[in-house]
Amino acid sequence: MIKVEQLLKAFGTTKAVDGISFEVAEGETLALLGTSGCGKTTTLKMLNRLIEPDSGSIAINGKNILEENPETLRRGIGYVLQNNGLFPHYTVAENIAIVPQLLKWDKAKTDKRINELLEKLHLSKDHLNAYPSELSGGQQQRIGLARALVADPPVLLMDEPFGALDNVTRSKIHSEFKVLDELKRKTIILVTHDVQEACELANRIALMDKGKIVQIGTPAELLFHPANDFVSDFLQEQRLQLEFKAIKITDLWEHLPEGSRKTNTSSLSAELDFWAVLEQFQFIKGENLNILNQQNKEVKTITFEQLMVAYSQYKNLQPHE
Amino acid sequence: MNEESQSLWGFMSQQADKLGIQTLQHIGLTFISLFIAVLIGLPLGIYITRKKNISGVVLGIAGILQTIPSIALLGFMIPLLGIGAKPAIVALLLYALLPIIRNTYTGITGVDGTVKEAAVAMGMSKWQVLFKVELPLAMPVILAGIRTATVINVGVATLASYIAAGGLGEFIFGGISLNNTNMILAGAIPAALLAIIFDFLLSLVQKLNFKKIKGAVKIAPVALLILSCLYFIPSAYGGKLTAGFTPEFMGRQDGNLGLQSKYGLKIHTIVISDAVMYKAAQEKELDVISGYSTDGRLKAYDLIVLDDDKKIFPPYYAAPVVREDALRKFPELEKTLNLLSGFITDSIMTELNYKTDYLHQPPERVAKDFLVAKKLYRADQGGKEGVVRIGSKIFGEQYILASMYTMLIKGYTNYDVATKTGLGGTKIVFDALTNDQIDFYPEYTGTGLLAILQAPPKTVTQLQVSKDSTYNYVAREFEKRYQLKWLKPIGFNNAYALMMREKQAKELHIKTISNLKRYLDSK
User: Shortest Cα distance from B119 to chain A (angstroms)?
Assistant: First the structure.
């Protein structure tokens, strides 16, 4: 879907982006992760040509975007900014309708689409005639997302979209984000400095430093097979929680004891991560949970202790750095 | 005439026609120039946000324009654009440019970068970003600039009357010259009100929310145009010759009022300041001007004085006015001062003034050269028999006369001399004389008659028929009231006069004011 090759951008003598290449598959979410100044935002902004690269190529769906009209290109790419970038002199409705207006949609089509998005993003219609300054930070960020999604672009670029939000609002939006069907079909590139956010929202992470990609891979790959010390150090602080979230029950399946009690109680999916299952335990004596593995339709009934044993056995099999 | 008791309201209602015209002209001038300034300043301000490297130069130039004194700027305009509305509008628009350019620049650069980036990232073109995002968001700041420019323009437009562009300045400066408080206020109060009203109205526009501004932006040019047109309503005039008179001359019986009543002179007249009047006459912007008959500029600009054949301008013959006790104390003084009598005619005084005012020769040198040429000069005797104190007013002619008297006294007597030149005005120098601070100074008969003695109008009319009757009356009254003696007149008459370009006057065969009237009345 998106193919970036040997992309290079220098500001003065500093190479902000130093010859990076990567690919993003259709429907995939890639996080560009790194500290400030690592070149992640510059990379993102070259994808919709807010910044023109010095050299290298970018192709979306096989088309070289550097040869396209930048305005037409941008109308087909959703863009979400950290500080939302809503127009303060436009109402919510007008803000969302910016791209449809540029694309000369008729009013009925625009209105229908806006209403549809409001519903999906849990925004009240009462907000339509409000100005952005009258809304909360979380609401503003949702409007920013709605504005980016309104024309249903296949590609979505997000520049630290949740960076300005407080932790509670952020985790709420994170969970909404994960279940939003609008986003499931999209190819998303997300810039963030937050390791947890990257692990939680992205299929793959490109960890960047000094304009180069240090390692690109799934969260688990970065956690358990770090390319070098930089990668493991970067993840070190929140390693335990990250690991809990990166490991799925299916990864532990072979280490869990066989057998299940035939009960009518509902069972959890083995696709859940380790953390999510841990959260289900209420720590009552003799408590156990049923977990269903979709792949082989097998159900296992496990206790908290059994789960922890399986985890440590799995960990012991991983290579140590 | 009992002008003192006339109320401001009385004056304003009496002059309602003029006041109305001046107000319309004032509003017109303000807004024509504002309109053009917006047309230039707004795009320029936008342009320099795109070319940041020249923004400093542009803002610098606009800033320098702002610091040029208004009168000087108006003066610079005359050789380029003549007098009247054109130079006034250009000068006003130059003043209005800086706030408009600067606020446009500040407003647009102040728009949140994230919002601009979002606009670009949504796929807006440069123009769409400008019109849909940058201008609407910068509008309150830009409007603040326009508001500042409007208030500046209302203020500076009062000066437009100096170069005959009309406006409320006519009353203000006329009133100052004539020492008529009502007239000053009749101009100043409406001007202040205009500034306050426009400032208030624009503050309302500024406070409108973004939505309504979209509409206001469309209405604004129309409103500006309508206000601008007000200037042209009163200016439906024309004529063969154009006269430019100072505000003071306009209001005086021995000025324009006399020209109308005694000569029946009907000429298209504009009000203009003394400072630019002579130049405007030379530039053929004006054909007839009011001036002083011995002004050095007469010679500098090739102008001639029209003969006042019906004697409406009272004579202003110059003569030394001396304390009688000083004459007793210095017995040789009167004889010495009278040496100069009869030597200096109008044209000689004009020539001498020309040398100091235009050739910038020091008055001492001009005085000495003259005395040497007339064989009056004698070397300093190194006087030891007391000191004669000479006073003078603060203009060139008086400095020259004081220098001549100094040289004569030192050369012909054994007295020494102390000069107190440059005393501010008639009142100051006259008070110095009566309070025994100086012994004598050169005074003019007309000033003595009107300013010092404040003779009643009837007496003035009777006296101004001949130079001798004025001189005799003044000499008699000064002696009686102040124990001061008028010595023999020096010879020249520095009175009000109508002037024309020499060449034009010859072509039209105009030598006297009556000739001028006849020419104007002929088809």
Answer: 8
Tell me which chain B residue has its CA closest to the CA of residue A99.
Answer: B122
List b or e across B216-237, with b for residues whose CB sees 16 or more CB atoms inside 10 angstroms: bbeebeeebeebbebbeebeee
Cα four-point dihedral sign B325, B331, B334, B340: negative
Give the span between the Cα atoms of A78 and A147, in whole angstroms: 8
Provide ipTM, 2 decimals: 0.83
Burial of A101 (0-12, 13-18, 19+ CB in 10 A): middle
Q: How many CA atoms lie within 13 A of B500 on its CB side?
A: 21
Which of these, A199, A235, A152, lies nearest to A30 by C-alpha position?
A: A199
CB contact under 8 A, A88 and B115: yes
In a structure prediction context, what are the per-residue pLDDT tens digits for chain B, which is 523 residues long? Answer: 444 456 888 888 877 888 888 888 898 888 889 989 999 999 999 999 998 889 889 999 888 888 888 878 877 777 788 777 888 888 888 889 999 999 999 999 999 999 999 999 999 999 999 999 999 899 889 989 999 999 999 998 988 887 778 888 888 887 776 667 888 898 999 999 999 999 998 888 777 765 555 566 667 777 777 777 766 654 444 457 888 888 778 777 778 888 888 888 888 888 887 777 888 888 888 889 988 888 888 888 888 888 888 888 888 899 999 999 999 999 999 999 999 998 998 889 989 988 888 888 899 999 999 999 999 999 888 878 889 999 988 778 889 999 999 999 999 999 999 998 877 677 788 889 999 999 999 999 988 887 788 788 788 778 876 778 889 999 999 999 999 999 999 999 888 889 999 888 898 888 898 888 888 887 5
Cβ-count burial A64-81 (b if 16+ within 10 Å, e if not) = ebeeeebbebbbbbbbbb
**Residue A112: which residues within 8 A CB-CB, separation 6 or more?**
none
CB proximity list for A288: less than 8 A, separation 6 or greater = A261, A301, A302, A303
Task: Please tell me which of the candidates A89, A99, A102 has its beta carbon nearest to residue B210.
Answer: A89
Pairing of strands A14-24, A63-64: unpaired
Q: Which residue does chain A place closest to B140, by CA atoms? A: A89
Question: Going by C-beta distance under 8 Å and a sequence separation of 6 or more, which residues neighbour residue B200?
Answer: none
Of A71, A86, A89, the CB nearest to B136: A89
Q: Which residues of B touch A85 (CB under 8 A)?
A: 112, 114-115, 117-119, 121
Question: Is A51 in a helix, a strand, or coil?
Answer: coil
B488/B342 Cα distance (integer angstroms): 9
**Six-digit token pair at B199?**
């400032």
Q: Give me the half-sphere count of Cα atoms (radius 13 Å) on the Cβ side of residue B119.
A: 23
DSSP for B250-281? HT-IIIIIHIIIII----EEEEB-HHHHHHHH
Query: Chain B closest CA to A86's CA: distance in Å?
Result: 6
What is the residue whose two structure tokens read 């030394």? B320
Q: The pTM is what?
A: 0.69
State whether residue A98 is helix, strand or coil: helix
Distance from CA of A36 to the nearest CA of B (A): 17
- Neighboring chain A residues of B120 at a CB cutoff of 8 Å: 50, 74
Please enumerate residues of A whose Cβ is less than 8 A from a Cβ of B.
Answer: 48, 50, 71-77, 79, 81-89, 98-99, 102, 147
**B422 CB-near residues (< 8 Å, 6+ apart):** B392, B393, B394, B399
